[in-house]
């Protein structure tokens, strides 16, 4: 096993500057970034001297929890390096480079199994063959005393020869009593594929049968296209793993052979003793079934283990084909026998053999006729809006996608098929997948307006609708960049296309008044029924945002006389938004964007109706309706990419549901591809709702570490800088926070910064980052509103120290009057901090020093009204002090 002892220097961290992939990892030259996960980042690299490409997995060590990360990394290296099997991705090398450790693995260029789930190419026969080979690989690992503990579709790669390869022994555990991966009581594994004993955290019960369960769950998902256990968040999934049985395979796929159902159900038995005793037994049972089914022989005649696979597993056909007759039977037998490495037996005179795969229509050799497939898809998509059952609509969408994906394998350049698949993806909530298809079209034919309009809607839904409705306006990213090209293209389109582009552009730039003006202008014109839900979605979004702005103006109004007209305007905008929402849902009750808006409007209206009632009580009353809306959204979406978990995270965060929101963000971060902004949003939620109610510096450091991927490439928005600066300030590193804010101001135009032109505290913080240090520290204290008292005290003491340095103030250009005002404010802050610590003497001393400055806006009466200091209003010493200063003032 190669050593992980660090080498001199670090080629990983500094190369290319912050946010860029390194030039090299150790001696391996980086070609590109392949992906990231909980353990680190994976790069495609060139290995010098051998002229081959390898996958290099890198994890940073110089952070909190570094020793645990290194230990996990070492275990992965040692476990995987012991294994040599044709169905296991081997480890070539391991090492440490500066502050980073790395593993060098074979680069498998093919897709992972999760990319194939749900495709009709996954026939029953193919699923069983794949399960058989992975079971053999697991048995090889178990024979060496190693349990994988994270068998799932994304850890099974299909190499270019069609052979499944088991990867990522990052959660491996030694069977000989060696240390388990987690010694902290953490759950280890991926919830949907975890065995009950993993969920219950019973280390003494985790053995080879744990991997058998997970492989059974993978087989289940291959057979029916969905995981055996699912739920709205990971904790719900974990509960269902232990407490509920998965939906019986017979209900989901009545045509499955009884023997296949029995194989899968035995592998997934909740009782360990009822499962196969080993992965080898599981493989043997599959072997017996396949040979008995195809050769007509009894399993009793085939007890000997099969040899290792020789030759590649054939790529599955686009759709299962029934082979009948003597010739077909001989062909199937010959193919299976050759691929399983069994000596061929001549059964050409035997009876016809039934295919293992479920029967389907026989198609011409060249695939289905293009016109018939696309015509059928168009009919299916047009009928979907009329369905009221979200689950049924989702399954129909999935089938449409299967048909289109299979068709596009034979006709990859069919533009209409790509547009239809993009529409189906967006209907299922997978907008980023839709954008990928539409990009392919528009690269070839930039003038295709149908593809342009569809891409605009798909991009809008993720970057404008979801992220543009984050509760705090300071965190909403500028999305004009994502939609600008398509808006410009549609400016020369039909009136309906121009109208749609105008509204999306206004929403992306946060110019809600301009969007309302477009709605009220009547420029929309007649809208075809099939586009009505999309138009209603964008209109409702504009009107809700305009109502939100009106609510802000209403709250800031000086008196009732000026407040009443603003309230009427807000109520009118909200009423029209709800009307648009209802009109769209009448046309399509399963429209993902409209369902998102419906759930979000409950939170918005709860905020607007707080007059005379407390917000938590209103939220409690809205909770059943919100849960129903959220559940409806879950039922209609495919939930394979990061889109849906991101949408649900926004909704849950807006509704004050921190933990479920973070669960959804974890799901979003684990999906591929992911939106870079998810890292920022995840940090924001954790920052504003810390675990114990107060953000400790240690927790801020952990969040900072998890925020690093947001800077892997230079961010396109200011929000990552803002969040990082807040975290740095709250961990006591205000100098680093100031550097971040200055860098941000250099990168972005002032008008794109938070609250530009307003009195938003973040705008003040940004503006003071480039000014004198005392002014910046004063603004920093406003940002540290819920940090531990020690952090605020340290910052305030630093500010006071600088305010007492006359030469330093002169050098920074701080006038005497400004310094005096800042000092009074700082002294009152320190008095408040003393009050939090119940330090009466300290509070008395700081208040007296502040009042001695004789500032016009700092009087005894104002101090008495302070929430923290008023507790001592009747204290004799405080009363005497206030009386003395009031007497001096009167004199």
Structural write-up:
By secondary structure, this protein is mostly helical. It is built from 35 helices and 11 strands. A hairpin with a 4-residue loop joins β4 (41-47) and β5. The longest helix is centred in the middle third of the chain and has 28 residues, at 560-587.
Shape: globular
Number of continuous helical runs: 35
How many DSSP E strands? 11
N-to-C terminal Cα separation, in Å?
85 Å
This entry's quaternary arrangement is single chain
Structural class of the secondary structure composition? mainly alpha
- Write down the overall mean pLDDT: 80
Spatial strand sequence of the major β-sheet:
1-6-7-5-4-3-2
Alpha-carbon Rg, integer: 32 Å
Tell me roughly what share of residues is in helical segments.
Answer: 40-55%
User: Describe the biggest sheet?
Assistant: 7 strands, mixed
- Stretches where pLDDT falls below 50 for ≥5 residues? 1-19, 174-187, 297-368, 755-759
| DSSP strand content | 5-15%
């Amino acid at each position: 096993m190669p050593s992980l002892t660090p080498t001199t220097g670090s080629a990983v961290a500094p190369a290319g500057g912050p946010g860029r992939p390194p030039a090299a990892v150790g001696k391996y030259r980086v070609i590109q970034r392949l992906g990231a996960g909980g353990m680190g980042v994976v790069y495609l690299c060139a290995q010098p001297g051998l002229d081959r490409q390898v996958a290099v997995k890198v994890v940073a060590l110089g952070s909190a929890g570094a020793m645990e990360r290194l230990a996990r990394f070492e275990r992965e290296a040692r476990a995987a390096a012991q294994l040599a099997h044709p169905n296991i991705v081997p480890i070539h090398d391991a090492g440490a480079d500066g502050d980073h450790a790395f593993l060098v693995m074979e680069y498998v260029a093919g897709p992972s199994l999760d990319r194939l789930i749900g495709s009709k190419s996954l026939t029953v026969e193919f699923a069983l063959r794949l399960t058989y080979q992975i079971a053999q690989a697991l048995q090889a690992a178990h024979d060496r005393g190693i349990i994988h503990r994270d068998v799932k579709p994304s850890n099974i790669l299909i190499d270019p020869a069609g052979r499944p390869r088991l990867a990522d022994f990052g959660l491996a555990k030694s069977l000989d009593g060696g240390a388990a991966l987690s010694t902290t009581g953490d759950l280890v594994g991926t919830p949907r594929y975890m065995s009950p004993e993993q969920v219950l955290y019973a280390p003494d019960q985790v053995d080879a049968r744990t991997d058998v369960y997970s492989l059974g769950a993978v087989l289940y998902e291959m057979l029916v296209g969905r995981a055996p256990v699912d739920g709205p968040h990971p904790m719900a999934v974990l509960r269902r793993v232990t407490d509920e049985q998965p939906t019986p395979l017979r209900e989901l796929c009545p045509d499955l052979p009884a023997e296949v159902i029995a194989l899968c159900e035995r592998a997934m038995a909740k009782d360990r003793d009822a499962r196969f005793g080993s992965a080898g037994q599981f493989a043997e049972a599959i072997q017996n079934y396949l040979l008995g089914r195809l050769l007509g022989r009894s399993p009793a005649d085939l007890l000997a283990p099969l040899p290792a696979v020789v030759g590649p597993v054939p790529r599955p056909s686009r759709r299962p084909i029934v082979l009948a007759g003597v010739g077909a039977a001989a062909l199937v037998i010959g193919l299976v026998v050759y691929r399983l490495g069994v000596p061929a037996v001549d059964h050409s005179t035997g009876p016809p053999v039934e295919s293992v795969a479920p029967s389907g229509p026989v198609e011409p050799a060249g695939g289905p006729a293009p016109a018939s497939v696309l015509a059928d898809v168009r009919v299916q998509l047009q009928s979907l809006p009329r369905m009221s059952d979200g689950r049924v609509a989702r399954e129909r969408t999935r089938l449409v996608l299967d048909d289109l994906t299979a068709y596009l394998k034979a006709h990859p350049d069919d533009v209409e098929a790509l547009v239809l698949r993009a529409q189906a993806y967006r209907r299922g909530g997978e907008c980023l997948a839709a954008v990928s298809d539409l990009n392919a079209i528009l690269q070839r034919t930039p003038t295709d307006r149908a593809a342009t309009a569809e891409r605009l809607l798909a991009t809008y839904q993720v970057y404008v609708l979801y992220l543009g409705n984050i509760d705090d306006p300071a965190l909403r990213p500028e999305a004009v960049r994502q939609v600008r090209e398509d808006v410009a293209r549609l400016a020369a389109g039909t009136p309906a296309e121009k109208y749609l582009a105008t509204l999306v552009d206004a929403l992306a730039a946060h110019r809600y008044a301009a969007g309302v003006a477009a709605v009220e202008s009547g420029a929309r014109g007649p809208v075809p029924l099939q586009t009505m839900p999309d138009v209603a979605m964008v209109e409702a979004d504009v009107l809700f945002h305009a109502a939100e702005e009106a609510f802000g103006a209403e709250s800031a109004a000086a008196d009732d006389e000026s407040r009443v007209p603003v309230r009427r305007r807000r109520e009118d905008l909200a009423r029209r938004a709800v009307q648009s929402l209802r009109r769209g849902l009448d046309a399509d009750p399963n429209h993902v964007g409209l369902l998102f808006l419906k759930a979000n409007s409950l939170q918005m209206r709860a905020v607007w109706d707080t007059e005379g009632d407390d917000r938590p009580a209103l939220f409690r009353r809205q909770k059943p309706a919100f849960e129903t809306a959220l559940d409806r959204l879950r039922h209609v979406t495919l939930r394979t990419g990061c889109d849906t978990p991101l949408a649900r995270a926004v909704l849950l965060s807006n509704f004050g549901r921190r933990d479920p929101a973070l669960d959804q963000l974890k799901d979003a971060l684990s999906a591929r591809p992911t939106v870079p902004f998810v890292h920022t949003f995840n940090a924001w939620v954790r920052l504003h709702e810390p675990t114990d109610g107060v953000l400790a510096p240690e927790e801020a450091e952990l969040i900072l570490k998890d925020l690093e991927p947001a800077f892997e490439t230079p961010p396109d928005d200011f929000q990552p800088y803002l969040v990082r600066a807040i975290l740095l300030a709250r961990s006591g590193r205000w100098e680093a926070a100031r550097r971040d804010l200055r860098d941000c101001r250099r990168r972005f135009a002032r008008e794109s910064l938070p609250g530009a032109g307003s009195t938003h505290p973040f705008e003040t913080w940004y503006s003071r980052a480039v000014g004198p240090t005392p002014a910046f520290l004063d603004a920093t204290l406003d940002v540290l509103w819920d940090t531990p008292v020690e952090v605020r005290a340290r910052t305030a003491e630093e500010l006071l120290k600088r305010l007492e340095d006359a030469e330093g103030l002169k050098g920074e250009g701080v006038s005497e009057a400004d310094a005096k005002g800042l000092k009074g404010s700082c002294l009152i802050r320190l008095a408040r901090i003393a009050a939090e610590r119940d330090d009466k003497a300290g509070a008395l001393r700081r208040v007296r020093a502040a009042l001695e400055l004789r500032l016009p806006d700092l009087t005894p009466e104002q101090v008495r009204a302070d929430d923290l200091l008023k507790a001592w209003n009747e204290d004799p010493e405080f009363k005497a002090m206030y009386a003395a200063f009031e007497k001096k003032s009167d004199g």
